[in-house]
TrEMBL record, chains A, B:
PANTHER family: HTH-TYPE TRANSCRIPTIONAL REGULATOR GALS (PTHR30146:SF109), LACI-RELATED TRANSCRIPTIONAL REPRESSOR (PTHR30146)
The name this protein goes by in its record: LacI family DNA-binding transcriptional regulator
GO MF: DNA-binding transcription factor activity; transcription cis-regulatory region binding
UniProt keyword annotation of DNA-binding present: yes
Classification of source organism: Bacteria, Pseudomonadati, Pseudomonadota, Alphaproteobacteria, Hyphomicrobiales
Species of origin: Sinorhizobium terangae
SUPFAM superfamilies for the chain: lambda repressor-like DNA-binding domains, Periplasmic binding protein-like I
Keywords: DNA-binding, Transcription, Transcription regulation
Length: 334, 334
DNA sequence: ATGAAAGCGCTAACAC
DNA sequence: GTGTTAGCGCTTTCAT
């Protein structure tokens, strides 16, 4: 047998033309059941697999989509990837993972992969469009993050509302001096979570001294660092609303190092509900995003676009969050 | 301008043949510097990108490799992926992530992707070959896990030695009743880590009652569950050597739930050094694997194979581990 | 229902 | 150094 059987090999053995084989393989109605069966059997016997390059070249579809994140090293993206992958597989698409590390060159590169036929569409989770421009009308869905004025469809959560709810919880159990460790600014997601914090404080008639808002970068070490800053203040907070779980881990760790009990002395609330947060000590109170669902919905949307449907890009799709109240929050000491 | 410029478009404008354009674009020496420059300028101006399908079809190389893991949801793989990706990019390869979920059908499918031209080579981290067989001589590198008798090159760590060292640490600080929560059996990696545990115990003249070896599945909940089993024994252990960090988190969590202090009452050692382990409470004593380096070395090896070099498959490449002693281990109570 | 043939965009012989 | 040409393996008209 040849190295890799091709349609021609099957055709010769079956005594039919390549066209017929192609039709049989793609379940066309234009083949008699009997011929089709013979061809299918032969294909199985030869262990035939269609060459993807040839097929893509001809059909002009790669049957794969690009999932672009800013850091594959972040476990947060994993469940989203799973959601995307499951949905993609079902529709016969494979998923290519793209990692930008916030490098504009790489951001552009992944967009170029849409043009060179590497992928048919893209789910973008970097919150940025590449600098060059000219990326409208492309089959791109923005998930998780937001890109304003891009005219692209969005799948996200209500970051403002979710943050507000988290801070309201702290207020409801008696906290007044609540500080916020934010993500990098002026990114929209960070801004929104901070806005939710501010709204909750304002609604409760609570002051937010400028020193109570510290800017982090979503990484664990940054949580530690921001926490240290807050606890050198003359009047340190009794509770922290931290913009993601990873920094919340860092903050809780640093608090313990400084001799503060969590939640005895200081309450901590995170955002994301990483899968370790429930095993963390103390189990972290945090906002849970429907990550797999975000991936699923984003992929569904992309499939729709790829099938030629018109999509309304004005209204983002908003998925619900849940505040999980665990052991890291408690009423302040009297 | 055409929808997507192709070589022909450039050729027409440059007043040369497609062959010349192709040569100029691939930096062939058979073009005058002047012609090349003209073509390059034109290509840039038209924003030309070669069609990957056409190129792959012709060259019979996809310039991408497959990285197959059993669970993309496991953060453990992320650093490996980063190592693989960086090395692959440099050589002009893209990386496709494959996720098997331990499903034999999917395991086979990824191997098939090598045959249908989707990828040129594969880094396999599932520890299994698909059932069908016939996968020798394929450009495959096994990383992290081991597959015996497959005739494939391996990149891994010395699991036996690393486990032994971890348990020796527990023994050296005075523990005698040391239990082991293993990974799924009879997988080679689990077996090796257990073997290291047994060796350390044997060398110290310590008994391992059968009930002190509990089988887990590397997931957090499994760590909890195994821990519960161990602490219903008439003589529970004073220390645990757990086959990975995730189960160690679960075990530590469960110990606290049951009212045991870590490390006051029970010491816990993990394996993997996930990035959260240092912020865990108490900071986890654990074996660190050079994950990015594993990815890097595996990809280098794969590149060598793809370039046609002969590889010695008899001797695995062994990378060093480091035992990080942190707060989760302490001498037993007197 | 089946076959012949064109061609997707590119590269690599082979000519000159 | 450049052009001509023949495919890579597949799908899809257009005939029959």
């Amino acid at each position: 047998m040849r190295e890799r059987p091709k349609i021609k090999d099957i055709a010769e053995r079956a005594g039919v033309s390549v066209a017929t084989v192609s039709r049989a393989l793609s379940d066309s109605a234009l083949v008699t059941a009997e011929t089709r069966q013979r061809i299918l059997d032969l294909a199985r016997e030869l262990n035939y697999r269609p060459n993807v390059s040839a097929r893509s070249l001809r059909t002009r579809r790669s049957m794969s989509v690009l999932l672009v994140v800013r850091d594959v090293g972040n476990p947060f993206y994993l469940d989203i990837l799973k959601g995307v992958e499951a949905t993609a597989r079902e529709a016969g698409y494979s998923v290519l993972m793209g990692n930008t590390e916030s490098d504009p060159a790489r951001e552009t590169e992944y967009f170029n992969m849409l043009r060179d036929g590497h992928a048919d569409g893209m789910i973008l989770m970097t919150g940025k469009l590449p600098p060059a421009g000219g990326w409208s009308h492309l089959p791109v869905v923005v998930a998780l993050e937001m890109i304003e004025g891009a005219g692209l469809p969005h799948v996200q959560v209500d970051n403002i509302g979710a943050a507000r709810e988290a801070v309201e919880h702290l207020i409801s159990i008696g906290h007044r001096r609540i500080a916020h460790i934010s993500g990098p600014l002026p990114e929209l997601m960070s801004l929104h979570r901070r806005e939710g914090y501010r709204e909750a404080m304002r609604n409760a008639g609570l002051d937010v001294p400028e020193s109570y808002e510290v800017r982090g970068n979503y990484l664990l070490e940054s949580g530690q660092e921001c926490c240290r800053k807050l606890f050198t203040l003359p009047e340190p907070p009794t509770a922290l609303f931290v913009a993601n779980d990873e920094m919340a881990y860092g903050a809780a760790y640093e608090l313990r190092r400084m001799g503060h009990d969590v939640p005895g002395d200081v309450s901590v609330v995170g955002f994301d509900d990483l899968y370790l947060s429930k095993a963390f000590y103390p189990p972290l109170t945090t906002v849970s995003q429907p990550r797999a669902e975000i991936g699923h919905v984003a992929m569904e949307l992309l499939l729709k676009i790829l099938s030629g449907a018109e999509i309304d890009c004005d209204e983002p799709i908003i998925l619900p969050t849940v505040l999980h109240i665990r052991g890291s929050t408690a009423p302040p000491r009297q």
